[in-house]
Every structure is written in structure tokens, then in C-alpha cells.
Amino acid sequence: MSELPKWAEDEINSISDESFRLDDSWVGTGYFLDIDKSNRVVDINFYERLPIGKYIITARVSDSIDMDALKKGIVYTYKIRVFKAPLSERLTKFLKENFNLDMDGVYRFELESLEPLEDVSSTESIVEEEEQ
What we know:
It is a single chain. With about 130 residues, this protein is α+β, with helices and mostly antiparallel strands. About 25% of the residues lie in helices and about 40% in strands. It has three helices and five strands, in the order αββββαβα. The protein has helices at about 5-15, 90-100, 120-130; strands at about 20-35, 40-45, 55-60, 75-85, 105-115. The longest helix is centred in the last third of the chain and has 12 residues, at about 120-130.
């Protein structure tokens, strides 16, 4: 396997928060694998494949979401914002030819919103009403 030449390493290392542009929004169902409250980051396993081919992502959590309300073991419907920092054509070609990587950009994800797939509290209240 080849090593990255300095120009390729420099391009990759030059990617910053400002390099990312909104590429897509996506809605899918899944569950949390990990919740890092201190860094506002979560790992999510989706049942559906994202448009970029992944099932598992690490996502930053929007400031509008209460981290204490997030729970493992619950299936949620997630709305994800997909950001992309494009790679140059030269680097894309180099990665394909030397590492067999079909990669034209670096992705970042942000959890914009989420809802439990089934609201247990509303189900319980329906059962209570039926019993009365």
C-alpha cells in the first residue's frame, strides 16, 4: 500500500468546519449506540442505509436538543443534516487509483431532530381510557 504524498496529506489536513456545506437532509429510523453528552455527539445505527451507503454514523447534536432526554434502547425517527467537504479531483483520482477508495468528499452529520417511533406514554393513556 502506498503512503499519502505530502500534497494529499496537506489537502486532507486543510479540511476545517468552514469547508463543510449542507449537502442533504435525511430522515431515518434507528437507535443510539452511544451518547456522549459532554461533547454533544451520538453514534446512531440506522435500519435504512443512508444515501452515502452507511448504516452507522457519528453525529453532532443540535443545540436545540436536550441531551438528557436521549435514551439508548428506544427506536427513534431521526432527521439528519448531511454536510460535505469536497475533495479535489486530483485527490479523488489518487485515492481511487492507489487505495481503491471511491471517495469524493468528507462527510459530517448533525442530528437536527428526533421523535420516539412509538410514544409509550400515549399508548399507556389509551389503554387506561379503554379500561375505564
